[in-house]
């Protein structure tokens, strides 16, 4: 069976995502809002599965990690101390004629507008934080920002968690949440958006052990890509050179992915030194330090930060899963999701909708599987071929069909494998065990 990925894969993925209820354009009925996307029922299920795998690997499966959920709005002094007010910017050029703005580092001709041919102005720095006003007064003191990274919520809570739990170094804080960046040029579907979601860890270490812990997280990032089913050969490490790293980082590895539009950053792993705790200690005058009971030493811990974009993970997962093949003389589209991320694990059908005994039996099987696996769908719309096509397109690994043999012969059902299309008869009594094994 020949399988292929076409060059126009992105358009096909975006269209499938809309058609099948994964992702819609933000504010679509008003013409959309650039850089925003709304997750529909299957999109949110896929997203929650990804986040669940991340939380399990990095929080619940470990003894040294503390989960957090900090506020998105923070005191403006957080962003002054972190360096974001002064330095979280991209180079921008504006066309004198059509007023369009471009990211200076992403255009080839820095003098001429590609849209209207007008002259581009001087390059200036554009701060990407969304500024807002807190409360009814509009003055300097009421300024706040929508956080551009979740990280700072963890740095400013270092002392709170330390005082509540008295953890020994090394230990980490982890959170999943929204971040906002006023990107000059949002593009490539979920890849570069203005409202994004991050899964981040701030892992605090002794200065002497940063290299060892950096290596440990380097491996863990790779493990996570396996959890969500990304092919190893499509991921590449990039050692970010001096001069190109964020202002806080002494070492950064970008994990790049072969997206359909090119090799681009998927995740980052940074050694943030004691930059953030040190800056916040100084600016807030609250010491953010660790006290070593053994040596009686007090010091500022250093920090390793693995940072993962949820949307970029979704896009990488969708792009890897998107497959076309020939089946039954027709071109078939399917999402080859790893079962762990698939929004629906199993679909149950009666062969025919208008045979009450088939429907009743299928409902019974559905209830049995739903109780065990949760993400199970019942479908009796249209003919069986249509139902298979729909489940293939949303990436359901297995379809279970109740047919006349189930009723008249042997109490077995067919279990159809999404990738091969092969159907196997399985006794209902053995169905739970078989599907548990198949779903891994
Ligand atoms: N706290 C560190 C930090 O925010 P970053 O490299 O700017 O570092 C981390 O962002 C991750 O967040 C990226 O690797 C990417 O997965 C995701 N990300 C960043 N900007 C994004 C955007 N505009 N749209 C979608 N994802 C984005």
TrEMBL record:
Give start and end of each Aminoacyl-transfer RNA synthetases class-II family profile domain. 8-339
Asked if the Swiss-Prot or TrEMBL record annotates the protein with the keyword Transmembrane helix, the reply is: no
Compartment annotation: Cytoplasm
- Among the Pfam families in the record, one is HGTP_anticodon
Which residues take part in binding ATP? 181-183, 191-196, 265-266, 309-312
InterPro entries named among the record's database cross-references: aa-tRNA-synt_IIb, aa-tRNA-synth_II, aa-tRNA-synth_II/BPL/LPL, Anticodon-bd, Anticodon-bd_dom_sf, Gly-tRNA_synthase/POLG2, Gly_tRNA_ligase_bac, GlyRS-like_core
* Record family assignment: Belongs to the class-II aminoacyl-tRNA synthetase family.
Q: What is this protein called?
A: Glycine--tRNA ligase
In its UniProt entry, the species of origin is given as: Candidatus Taylorbacteria bacterium RIFCSPHIGHO2_01_FULL_46_22b
Q: What is the lineage of its organism?
A: Bacteria, Candidatus Tayloriibacteriota
């Amino acid at each position: 069976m020949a399988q292929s990925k076409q060059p126009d894969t992105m358009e096909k993925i975006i269209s499938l995502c809309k058609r099948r209820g994964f992702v819609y354009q933000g504010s679509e009925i008003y013409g959309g809002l650039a850089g925003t996307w709304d997750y529909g029922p299957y999109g949110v299920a896929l997203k929650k599965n990804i986040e669940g795998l991340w939380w399990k690997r990095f929080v619940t499966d470990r003894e040294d990690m503390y989960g957090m959920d900090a506020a998105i709005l923070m005191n403006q002094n957080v962003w002054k101390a972190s360096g974001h007010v002064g330095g979280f910017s991209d180079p921008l050029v504006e066309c004198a004629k059509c007023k369009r703005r471009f990211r200076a580092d992403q255009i080839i001709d820095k003098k001429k507008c590609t849209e209207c041919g007008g002259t581009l102005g001087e390059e200036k720095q554009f701060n990407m934080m969304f500024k807002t006003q807190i409360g009814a007064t509009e003055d300097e003191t009421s300024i706040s920002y929508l956080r551009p990274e979740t990280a700072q919520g963890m740095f400013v809570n270092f002392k709170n968690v330390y005082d509540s739990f008295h953890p020994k170094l090394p230990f980490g804080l982890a959170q999943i949440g929204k971040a906002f960046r006023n990107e000059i040029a949002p593009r490539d579907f979920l890849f570069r958006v203005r409202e994004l979601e991050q899964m981040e860890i701030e892992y605090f270490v002794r200065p002497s052990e940063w290299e060892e812990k950096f290596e440990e997280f380097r491996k863990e990032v790779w493990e996570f890509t396996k959890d969500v089913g990304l092919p190893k050969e499509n991921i590449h490490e990039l050692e970010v050179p001096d001069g190109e790293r964020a202002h806080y980082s002494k070492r950064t590895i970008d994990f790049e992915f072969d997206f359909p539009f090119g090799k681009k950053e998927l995740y980052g792993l940074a050694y943030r030194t004691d930059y953030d705790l040190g800056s916040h200690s100084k600016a807030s005058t609250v010491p953010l330090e660790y006290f070593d009971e053994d040596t009686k030493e007090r010091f500022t811990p250093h920090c390793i930060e693995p940072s993962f974009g949820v949307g970029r993970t979704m896009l990488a997962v969708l792009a890897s899963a998107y497959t076309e093949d020939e089946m039954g003389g027709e071109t078939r589209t399917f999402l080859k999701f790893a079962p762990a991320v698939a929004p629906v694990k199993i679909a149950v059908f009666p062969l025919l909708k208008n045979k009450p005994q088939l429907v009743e039996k299928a409902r019974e099987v559905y209830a049995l599987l739903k109780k065990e696996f949760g993400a199970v769908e019942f479908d009796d719309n249209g003919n069986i071929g249509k139902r298979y096509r729909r489940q293939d397109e949303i990436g359901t690994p297995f379809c279970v069909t109740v047919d006349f043999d189930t009723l008249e012969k042997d109490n077995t059902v067919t279990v159809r494998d999404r990738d091969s299309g092969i159907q196997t008869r399985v006794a209902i009594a053995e169905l739970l065990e078989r599907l548990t094994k198949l779903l891994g």
